[in-house]
Every structure is written in structure tokens, then in C-alpha cells.
Automatic annotation (TrEMBL):
Keywords noted in UniProt: Repeat, WD repeat
Protein name: DDB1- and CUL4-associated factor 11
Ranges where the record places region Disordered: 52-145, 180-208
GO cellular component, one term: Cul4-RING E3 ubiquitin ligase complex
InterPro entries xrefs: DCAF (IPR051859), WD40/YVTN_repeat-like_dom_sf (IPR015943), WD40_PAC1 (IPR020472), WD40_repeat_dom_sf (IPR036322), WD40_rpt (IPR001680)
SUPFAM superfamilies on file: WD40 repeat-like (SSF50978)
Length: 644
């Protein structure tokens, strides 16, 4: 393996520079536990490998914000952005260089979700070890960085088993990953589930449907699928027989009946795909479904033509001011512009049809030196942009006034997800690593007194994504506690529920980015069993007001996303989610059961998007693949016979 001249292999020298010598940890010997981040190796050269500095903060630093990226004192200060015309063709030049040009910070953000409690746990994880690296003496003696033999350090780590080279395809063609096990066993527990299907997410075989059976959403979905008296999906052959008997309204199926029929033909086969050399982070259909937008860790945003079942690359836009990766993208309502965010003080706006080299920087003017917007949403009228950031705040940027109009101190931890409740753009949803969903009224928001309309508590760990049903009443939240919850915003959680959720969060003693899900019954675990033969216990926290809980997918490594299925084709009968095992998992909203699992990726599926008017799903995975799924029936009515 050769180290490319443009690559930065800095972890040993950078760590010694920060601490004046080598430190050790129980698992790494040379470095703090869980410090090495996964790094993609394109071809035969190293792209980036890094170790975060020690998490102990300098005097005056807020201990809640202690962490690899919040305690850096050598970070360059952000300067004013240069004009777009002065930027280089790569799009990476300009005054905002610290988050995009500094390779140390790119690698330190290997999963950009820097939760404060995770940082606190990491800061207390280091312990002495008896073995030192070959180059540690020289480094401790003040040897220059360039004198460190990087190849020798890498060979040392490989020899000790602290890192592995893993072969695959696409973005996983070759990866350098750390071994995390604290034991001497050969098996690496934290690695299981990172690639392939080794982690088996627990499934609730007997979902509690009491609340959803009494809810309004059940009536809405049954009416939308012409199933007012049917809880389950009615057989397709039975529907055909009813039509032939003249028992359908008119001479053909109604729209609701068509939606019910389409629930029998869910996507199950890959029809198109594209492969990148690095991780695909997010992808979304336009409102009309004629375009698909994909963002990759290679800093490229790709636009595809998806009309009439096509999947043709139209344009590739080089993102600007990118720190580590583009983390979220979305269309403006008119589908004429694209919004994207990264580790940067700015949200960027780029034209689709016009000059794609002209990017407008929307300055959020945050107080944090190390800042990132994890989630974006555009209002229906296209006037305002909503963002959730790592400083626990919600940001509202007014495009007409060209300035930030609101900064709301919303949560106690990173805001990983934001959404507008409906087309009015007045109600806002936010989800955070504090495990709470909050509802905000845009008309009464004040920076000096930020008060949510209500709070929704029931998760045991941080929230990775939220999605609104679009009626300002129901939303879903995906969580690191390996569950999705359905909420009714008219049923807020009491104080006891908020307290129970906060307590559950403090009891989580694992890092979802690098470790396995805690075993059932362990302290801080998400699931409980009295015996292995007993079904998964549906233990709800005190004050949990969720309507339904869905389990059967894995939430590891990154902020995995879940959504409602489209109203036009399915009546929003389903919830579909990415999964850390490389699958797409589809749930029935009303029964809580898993109705389909789509396998085809070699790494976690971070994002999924269902065409608003067609029966296709596009998945974006960390294996570098973007795949379009559609229904293919090789034997007529074979699937129907299996269901019947």
C-alpha cells in the first residue's frame, strides 16, 4: 500500500504534538480508545486516517462540550467568505478553509455527530498500557513531526491488531478500521454489523397496537386505502373477484382501492444503480419525482433524471466549503435550487438549471467555532430555511432578507433532525441527541424566551431523524435505541416522561458509532428479556406518549433515516427505514410488523427515498452504492399465494 502525496497520515504526529508524547488506552496501547476513525482508501492510496486529540478541555471550556472537536486550540479562525468567482475550480478554496482544508478536522469528524455525553464518556475511557509504540520515545523527546516514520507506525498498529485493512467493493474497496475489543479474544465485537449482515436487530414479534388501534391515524390510513373494515391487507385475488362481481364502486377500482392493490407490489428488485468511490450520505426525490439528488463523501452532489423509470445522471455539482462530507441536501420547493450543509458556518444554495458554479453562502453566524448543520428543511413557500445544528440550536434563515432571522436554543445536545409539520410552515419539529422531539410554533418563537409548544419523550437514546406525515398531527422519530416511534402532537409528554427519558439517556454507556448495541437486559440496553425464550418485552418509559413503536432495523455508525411511504401510491400505510446491516426495512404502520426487507448493500443504508407517484425506492449506502428498487414478479401471483 502506498501513501498518496495528497493524503494526510497525521494521526501519530498530531497526537504527540497535542500531548507532548504518546498516551495509551486499554484497547489501543498507543492511542485513546475508539480514537481511530474509519477511513476509506481509494485505490491503493490512503485518503485520510486520524486520531482525535485527548478530550480533556482547556480551562474555561464547558465540560458538556468536551470532545475531540470542541477542545482544539490550533483550529484556524473562520474568515469572511470569498466571492464565488474567486474560488478555485475545486470549490475548496476561500476564506472558510478550516473545516474543509484541514485534513485533521475532516478525519476527526468521522461521524460528525459529536454528542456531549459521548464526549464525556470518551474522556474517561483512557487507561495506561504497558506497551509503547516504536516511535513514542522520539516523539516524547520532541522529535520533529517529519521525523516520525509513518509506515513504521502503521505497521506497528497492524501488527498489534489495533487496526485492520478490510477489502470490499466501491466505497468499501479498502478500509482502515480500528479494533475496539478490550479483551484478548480474536473476535472484534464492534466490527460485527459494520459490513454485511452480522448484526441481527431485535424484532418485536408481538407489537403493542392498543394505542394505534384507537388513534385517528388508523382511520386515515384505512380510508386512504379503501379498507375501512380491514385491519390487514386484503388479498389482491379477492379484490379482483369483488370487482368481477360488480361490487366495486363504478366499473373500476377507486383510487383508494388502487392504493390498496399497490401495497401488494412493494419494491423488491434492483433496477438501476450507481457506485461511488466514497460513502453515499443522503439522497432524496424531488417533489414531482422527476429528479433525484444524491450527496457523497467525495464532495460531489449528483442530480439524476428519474422520469418514466429512468436513472440517468444529469449533472454533478462540486460542493463548496465541505468539512469531511456533505451531510444533508434538499430541493427548494420549485426544484430550481439545491440546498446542502456540512461542517461549516454556512448553508449553501446552488442553482440546478443555471450556473452550477455559482453557490450562494447563507451565513448562520453561529457562536461555536466548530459548527455543523446536520439537517435541513425548506419552507413550502421557499422563503425560509430551517436547520438543526451541533450547538443544540435551531436556525431559521430568511432568503428574502438574506439573513438569519432566528436562532433558538432548542435542545441540550446536538439537533440531528428538523422538519416542517405541514405546508403552512408554521409548526416545526426538532429531534436531538437528548432523546426528545420538540414541537415549535413559528409565530410565537422568540430568541430571548424559546418555548416549545410541547415535547415528546419516550426514546432511551438520541434521535437520528424525524419525518412528518404532512398533516401537522403525526410524525415518526428514528432513534439510536434501535426503534422508531409514531407520535401524535396532540399528546405531549408529561414532566414524568421528560424526566424518565433524560434518566434513560444518562444511563447509556455505549457509543453507537463504534460499538455494538448493548445486550438485552444489560444496564443501558434498549431491550429486556427475562429469558431467551420470552418474546421481546414492550417496556415503555414512564410518560411515554408514543402511539406505536417499531423494532426490526439497526441504527449504528451514522444518523440513519426513516420516512412515511407516499400518500398517493400507498396511502402512507408503511414506514420504511435504512438499516446498519445494509438493508431497507419496511413496516406496516398499523400492525408494527416488518412486511419487507430489501438486501443488497454491503454497508449501512443511511438514507432512503420513495418516489412520490411510482413504486420505486432509492437507497443510499456507505458502501458507495445508490440503488433504485422496483417490484419484479417472476411468477404471476406467486407472492399473492404466499400471503393468502
Amino acid at each position: 500500500m502506498t501513501v498518496n502525496g495528497h493524503a494526510q497520515f497525521f494521526f501519530f504526529s498530531h497526537f504527540c504534538k497535542q500531548h507532548g508524547g504518546c498516551r495509551s488506552g486499554p484497547a489501543s496501547g498507543l492511542i485513546p480508545q475508539r480514537a481511530v476513525k474509519p477511513a476509506a482508501l481509494g485505490g491503493d492510496h490512503l485518503v485520510a486516517v486520524g486520531v482525535a486529540p485527548d478530550t480533556s478541555c482547556s480551562p474555561g471550556t464547558d465540560p458538556r462540550r468536551a470532545g475531540p472537536t470542541r477542545c482544539r486550540e490550533d483550529r484556524q479562525t473562520h474568515g469572511p467568505p470569498q466571492s464565488m468567482g474567486s474560488q478555485s475550480s475545486s470549490g475548496m478554496s476561500g476564506g472558510r478553509s478550516s473545516s474543509s482544508d484541514n485534513p485533521a478536522e475532516r478525519s476527526e469528524a468521522a461521524e460528525p455527530n459529536r454528542s456531549r455525553r459521548t464526549a464525556d464518556r470518551q474522556s474517561s475511557a483512557a487507561a495506561p498500557s504497558s506497551e509503547a509504540a516504536p516511535s513514542s520515545a522520539a516523539a516524547a523527546a520532541g522529535a520533529p513531526e517529519e521525523d516520525v516514520d509513518l509506515a513504521e507506525v502503521l505497521a506497528y498498529l497492524l501488527r498489534r491488531g489495533q487496526v485492520r485493512l478490510v477489502h470490499g467493493s466501491g466505497a468499501t474497496g479498502l478500509q482502515l478500521v480500528q479494533s475496539y475489543s478490550d479483551s484478548d479474544e480474536d473476535s472484534d465485537g464492534a466490527w460485527e454489523g459494520r459490513l454485511g449482515d452480522r448484526y441481527n436487530p431485535p424484532v418485536d414479534t408481538q407489537p403493542d397496537t392498543h394505542e394505534v388501534d384507537l388513534s385517528e391515524i388508523r382511520t386515515q390510513i384505512l380510508l386512504a386505502t379503501a379498507s375501512s373494515t380491514q385491519k390487514g391487507r386484503q388479498g389482491f385475488t379477492h379484490m379482483l373477484a369483488e370487482r368481477e362481481k360488480g361490487r366495486c364502486k363504478g366499473s373500476s377500482f377507486s383510487h383508494g382501492e388502487c392504493s390498496r392493490i399497490r401495497t401488494h407490489f412493494l419494491p423488491n428488485h434492483v433496477s438501476h444503480k450507481d457506485t461511488y468511490q466514497q460513502k453515499a450520505f443522503c439522497g432524496v426525490y424531488s417533489e414531482e419525482g422527476n429528479m433525484f439528488l444524491s450527496a457523497c463523501q467525495d464532495q460531489n452532489i449528483r442530480l439524476y433524471d428519474t422520469t418514466k423509470g429512468r436513472f440517468k445522471l444529469l449533472r454533478t455539482v462540486r460542493a463548496r466549503d465541505v468539512g469531511w462530507s456533505v451531510l444533508d441536501v434538499c430541493f427548494t420547493p420549485d426544484a430550481q435550487h439545491v440546498l446542502y450543509s456540512s461542517w461549516s458556518d454556512y448553508i449553501h444554495l446552488c442553482s440546478i438549471d443555471g450556473d452550477s458554479e455559482n453557490h450562494t453562502s447563507l451565513d448562520l453566524n453561529p457562536d461555536e467555532r466548530r459548527f455543523c448543520v446536520f439537517s435541513l428543511a425548506a419552507s413550502t413557500d421557499g422563503k425560509e430555511i430551517l436547520g438543526g445544528a451541533n450547538d443544540g440550536c435551531l436556525y431559521v434563515f430568511d432568503l428574502e432578507q438574506n439573513k438569519r432571522t432566528l436562532k433558538i436554543d432548542a435542545h441540550e445536545d446536538d439537533v440531528n433532525a428538523v422538519a416542517f409539520a405541514d405546508g403552512s410552515s408554521q409548526l416545526l419539529f426538532s429531534g436531538s441527541d437528548d432523546a426528545l422531539c420538540k414541537v415549535w410554533d413559528r409565530r410565537t418563537l422568540r430568541e430571548d424566551r424559546p418555548q416549545p409548544v410541547g415535547e415528546l419523550a419516550g426514546h432511551r437514546d438520541g434521535i437520528t431523524f424525524i419525518h412528518s406525515k404532512g398533516d401537522a398531527r403525526y410524525l415518526i422519530s428514528n432513534s439510536k435505541d434501535q426503534s422508531i416511534k409514531l407520535w401524535d402532537v396532540r399528546k405531549f409528554s408529561p414532566k414524568e416522561g421528560l424526566a424518565a427519558s433524560r434518566l434513560a439517556v444518562t444511563q447509556q454507556n455505549w457509543d453507537y458509532r463504534w460499538q455494538q448495541v448493548p445486550q438485552r437486559g444489560e444496564e443501558g440496553g434498549s431491550y429486556e428479556r427475562k429469558t431467551e425464550e420470552e418474546p421481546l418485552r414492550r417496556h415503555k418509559l414512564t410518560g411515554d406518549t408514543s402511539v406505536m413503536t417499531y423494532r426490526g432495523h439497526g441504527v449504528l455508525h451514522t444518523l440513519i433515516r426513516s420516512r412515511f411511504s407516499p400518500e398517493f401510491t400507498t396511502g402512507q400505510r408503511f414506514i420504511y427505514s435504512g438499516c446498519s446491516t445494509g438493508k431497507i426495512v419496511i413496516y406496516d404502520v398499523l400492525t408494527g410488523t416488518v412486511v419487507s426487507r430489501l438486501s443488497g448493500h454491503d454497508a449501512c443504508v443511511r438514507d432512503v427515498s420513495w418516489h412520490p407517484y411510482e413504486d420505486t425506492i432509492i437507497s443510499s449506502s456507505w458502501d458507495g452504492a445508490v440503488r433504485m428498487w422496483e417490484h419484479r414478479q417472476t411468477h404471476p401471483l406467486e407472492e399473492e399465494r404466499e400471503r393468502d
